[in-house]
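User: For my dataset I need records formatted as: sequence, then structure tokens, nothing else. Please produce one.
Assistant:
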Amino acid sequence: MQTNLAPEYKGTADGDAAEAILRKCVHCGFCTATCPTYQLLGDELDGPRGRIYLMKQVLEGATPTRKTQVHLDRCLTCRNCESTCPSGVDYGHLLDIGRKLVDAKVPRPMGERALRWALKEGLPSPLFAPAMALGQLVRPLMSTALKNKVPPKQAAGDWPTATHARKVLILLGCAQPAMAPNINSATARVFDAIGVQCVVVPKAGCCGAVKFHLNDQDGGKAEMRANIDAWWPHVQGSADTAGVEGIVMNASGCGVMVKDYGHILQDDPAYAAKAAQISELTKDVSEWLPELSEKLRDQLPHRDALSRDEAAQRTIAFHPPCTLQHGQQLRGGVEKYLGELGFNIKVTGCEAHLCCGSAGTYSVLNPDLSYQLRDRKLGHLNETFGATPPDVIVSANIGCITHLQSGTATPVRHWIEVLDQALLKRS
């Protein structure tokens, strides 16, 4: 795509990066076929190709309008288009630039500004956990809309106390400890079962995704630097202690962001090298499944023992989050290795690639589209096992889990919790 940058963007970091991305686009439109919002709305400007044209116009000097802003806001940032694109267009990074430039010129309505501020400041805040606890206490009195955002209180199992020579860092996350604390403790227990210790660094907080994607990019970068500072001593190790083997992410939304630290901070002379190393060390928990599967076979004897385990024989529908299958380009691992361990797990054969509508804060900012996608996804997941619905739906991201659970009575959990439950029953 030929691009002629306006003088104000020519030679700037954002302008040069955007131009390089735009030049890869060949207008083919393959991306529209897999774009969730285009599927719902049928509007070219609510698909990746149309949004690329809008951003190109801004970069070439056109004045953005509120309409431009709305079309960019409607994007889920699911990055399905990146999986589809034959030309390798880096749409996600282009959108980050486009939203930044448009927001700098188009003021938002007061109510919208207030809501976005509350989300970006509230979710990563230490006050989020007590606020969630209070909400859970009065949940029976809430409207359906509020209940959808406040899951029932969940008990977390015990954190393992054993010390192992092999260690990995684990990021607890900002929302997950308050909304679904068992995901983190289940991860620690599963890793403990293969002789790997999950280490939590208290000073490591939000991954930075919430602020960064709500266009507080400076605030998001500050959180990234804080995490790097907190993790760095454990990464380097000492004369007596080796550095950690890696950084494990059990929320794919956090994982895709931490894996992007190297790109986002590449122009920061103080953090570029460290950020790149942090990204290199970061792996989604599913990337550990080959080792987990191999070493847990003795504790979960293949199929024979699981056939006696009622919990493990449940039918499981797996929803792969967009941040896992498109953002991190990780597909097939969860269902393959859990299947090898004897779990009856399947991915829907219809639209498994499409977003469930959660998309971070999207379900709050764009509830109508979000709930349409949720119900569409749940319909396909329920059809996976024919006339008998699945006993449990599993996913790999706290946002997807909470969002899907708001639309179904079927339990929705992280797949690591199902594996942990089977291990606990065999112990």
